[in-house]
Amino acid sequence: MNRNQRGPVFTQSSVLSPQSSLKIHLVLASAAFLFSLNYIFSKFGMASFTPLSFAYVRVLGSALVMRLFVRHGEVEKLSREDDRQLFLFAILGVVINQTFFLGGLSLTTAHVAAILITTIPVFALAAAIVLGRERATATKFGGIALAAAGALLVVAREGFEGAGKSWIGDLLIAVNCLSYALYLVLSKPAMARLSAKRVIGRMFTIGAVLMLPICAWSLLHEHWSAIPIRAWLSLLAVILGPTVAAYLMNAWALRHADSSLVAAYSYLQPVIAVILAAIFLHEEIRLVALVAAAMIFAGVWISGRRVSALP
What we know:
Elements: H1 2-10, H2 18-45, H3 51-70, H4 80-107, H5 110-117, H6 120-130, H7 138-156, H8 161-165, H9 167-193, H10 196-221, H11 229-256, H12 259-264, H13 268-281, H14 287-303
Helix pairs in contact: 2-11, 2-13, 3-4, 3-10, 3-11, 4-9, 4-10, 5-9, 5-13, 6-9, 7-13, 7-14, 9-11, 10-11, 13-14
């Protein structure tokens, strides 16, 4: 019985064709790009919104958008166990993830946040190994380490000057990373059994309910009439891109790849964030970013050379 339960979810039953493997990596790279946009758009938005108001409207808006996608596809009723699992996923992947990330980002710099985001694969791989869901291999550790070195290299020039001044924000980001990593590992079985749209849609619906008492004071005291249109457009962009689309892409990838590989793509975010900052904030792109990008791509490829087969 244990073999039947675990085999389809956690083992790698066959080697993907180059086309299927490429598709998974393209989806994960696209999700990483959208998550990287989050740094830019959220900073723009939170210049006018308070962090908790921004976080709640983001989750509520995402839940409404997802409802449009999932309502026609739900046929089978979810079991009580499924409901309990989705409740936990909502806490880890939505409530803690959204509130702690945006709260932390408002208190620290985008570069320091990008550095801390690279702890997600470390947390995810450690959790997956502890839970017995992935094997501890030299290849996995080597790929993760190479990608981590690249991510740290690209932001090393920025230094850690802001860390001492914004340790509360850094702590919030770190908790967000741990929570999201646990969500990636624990949700993998559900992603393999259920529709990604259904899981993500239900998560954000639950999250919108759970976050209301947390964000109520901020929502009541928000100066809504003073918020400019550009802030609302930034919020809309965050909802459609880094939230709905990116979450769906990651959920789909979890059906076909190890959670550590999905998490490893967060190493792309610092590199992409530097490039986006150069485009939108006119910051200089240094050669170190290009070198680091090569290291990150190599590390991600090494850590994910073997993935599960597509159905």
